[in-house]
């Protein structure tokens, strides 16, 4: 099985939608590396098996 790490900047994505705190405002203003995706993975070659 092959998987790819897409986001590993932190366990919480920044900026949070609609949040007005100092950290989120700075992340919106400065962009990367202050903004970051949450943890995410992509699985290659996954096969789905459905029972009918």
Explain briefly what this protein structure is.
The protein has 52 residues and is of the alpha+beta class. Helices cover 17% and strands 21% of the residues.
Overall description:
- By secondary structure, the protein is of the alpha+beta class.
- It has one domain.
- It starts with a strand and ends in an 8-residue tail after the last strand.
- Strands 1-2 form a two-stranded antiparallel ribbon.
- The longest helix has 9 residues, at 22-30.
- The protein has one helix and two strands, in the order βαβ.
- 17% of the residues lie in helices and 21% in strands.
Attribute tags:
52 residues, alpha+beta, two-stranded antiparallel sheet, 1 helix
| Percentage of residues assigned to helices | 10-25%
Unreliable sequence segments: none
- Strand residue content: 15-25%
Order of helices and strands: EHE
Distance between the termini: 26 Å
Furnish the topology, listing elements before pairings:
Blueprint lengths: L1 E6 L14 H9 L9 E5 L8
Antiparallel strand pairs: 1-2
